[in-house]
Amino acid sequence: MEIKVLQKVLAANDRVADENRGMFDANKITVINLMSSPGSGKTTLLDKTIEALKGELKIAVIEGDIQTTMDAERLSRHDVPIVQINTAAIGGDCHLDAAMISSALHDLKIEGLDLIFVENVGNLVCPAEFEIGEHFKAVVISVTEGEDKPLKYPLMFQVCKWAVISKTDLLSVLDFDIEKLRVYMKQVNPKLEVFELSARSGAGFDAWLDHIREAVRAKKQG
Amino acid sequence: MEIKVLQKVLAANDRVADENRGMFDANKITVINLMSSPGSGKTTLLDKTIEALKGELKIAVIEGDIQTTMDAERLSRHDVPIVQINTAAIGGDCHLDAAMISSALHDLKIEGLDLIFVENVGNLVCPAEFEIGEHFKAVVISVTEGEDKPLKYPLMFQVCKWAVISKTDLLSVLDFDIEKLRVYMKQVNPKLEVFELSARSGAGFDAWLDHIREAVRAKKQG
């Protein structure tokens, strides 16, 4: 009974997600949904990514948080459009859903944009269940979190196309086996494309940026 | 409407939580509910805590995960009773609730126990909403996660009596302002008791252990 209700909720969500995606496609905009545990470095990743790409691409951000506008404020220095969603105002949801994105689009002039980043609420569980109309789901996992996360939170790693292993500058002081993490990732999702990088040192960042550029180019041509 | 349903669910949960707590109290058992983001170091904290206390206290563990028994296996070397709850089998819930704890108690001989640790599902949002019958809720936050977490996930820090700041051995290589974290913690919950420790180096561990000993002693006498 409970499962039936949940399926209905998810089916309704998927319809709105399809509408969002249709609008993005009609405007040839690439949308990337960044998800992770709290504190894995999503905002810092976004900050450095926007800094590197804002000269060549028109970028906007949809910021999801239960409350506060701290992340949006951190990103505001880039002078790109940012819409904040605070789920506390609508029940405190621990994830973004398609209707919230649809509402956010009313506050965003999407014509002329190339790329929208959605920073989801920090949570490795529930955001994985909700399509929002994005083209790419990316999970961020820092090397401080432990190698077992793909096995313990498999849905997140299964629904994502991309995984970013962040904070690699800390590897030298941690007992962290990055190969073990990669094996577990492949085990739950053999197709996952994996990036290792440090937003602090810049190591590995070029491959990440090139991948985004290529996704945007493909959408423009498609 | 949606909120009404949620309140009913939570009211039903609270009734079962009260039953659990009544059973713990009748047996003079202290129950500590450990919550955090994935990867903040709950299992390592538990591992070192059990190692230090198992000679003097009768301890059991209820391990909550969506799936896998990896954490339970890590703790099994201590030869204390462990019951694993895998929420994947019952809908994939991102938190433990009182009924799950009640079920777990069928598999646990609680007579003679002094202390039960519950390791909740890794999630800084939803576990805060569900009473399970514990006496102490403790949030673990590692110094790799960012100082802003109490402001962004205030409910978790409001419901907890204790907060453990973990992985302090990494402070020297991070740009982390532990005083800022403490200010934010006090801001959302002035009564929060805060421990700073490193399970790896052992720094700060004695104060944490003494606090647990004192809680167990008070329950035995009360």
Largest interface: A-B, 37 and 37 residues
- For the record, the CATH class of one domain in chain A is Alpha Beta
Radius of gyration of chain A: 17 Å
Element-by-element helix/strand order of chain A: HEHEHEHEEHHEHEH
| CATH fold naming of one domain in chain A | Rossmann fold
Largest sheet of chain A: 7 strands, parallel
Give the number of DSSP strands of chain A.
Answer: 7
Which percent bin holds the helix content of chain A? 40-55%
N- to C-terminal distance of chain A: 42 Å
| CATH homologous superfamily identity of one domain in chain A | P-loop containing nucleotide triphosphate hydrolases
The strands making up the biggest β-sheet of chain A line up spatially as 3-2-4-1-5-6-7
The residue ranges of chain A in which pLDDT falls below 50 over 5 or more consecutive positions are none
Summarize the structure.
With 222 residues, chain A is an alpha/beta fold. Chain A contains eight helices and seven strands, in the order H-E-H-E-H-E-H-E-E-H-H-E-H-E-H.
Please, could you describe this protein's structure?
The structure is a homodimer of 222-residue chains. Chain A is of the alpha/beta class and 222 residues long. Chain A has a domain at 2-138 and 204-221: P-loop containing nucleotide triphosphate hydrolases (Rossmann fold), CATH 3.40.50. In chain A, 41% of the residues lie in helices and 18% in strands. Chain A has 8 helices and 7 strands. The first copy, chain A, has helices at residues 2-26, 42-53, 70-75, 98-106, 149-152, 154-159, 178-188, 205-221, and strands at 30-36, 59-65, 82-86, 115-119, 136-142, 162-166, 193-196. The first copy, chain A, has a 7-stranded parallel sheet with strand order 3-2-4-1-5-6-7, with helices on both faces. In chain A, β6, α7 (178-188) and β7 (193-196) form a beta-alpha-beta unit. In chain A, α1 runs parallel beside α4. Chain A binds chain B through residues 2-3, 6, 37-40, 65-68, 70, 91-92, 94, 121-126, 141-142, 144-146, 148-149, 151-155, 167, 170, 173-174, and chain B through 2-3, 6, 37-40, 65-68, 70, 91-92, 94, 121-126, 141-142, 144-146, 148-149, 151-155, 167, 170, 173-174.
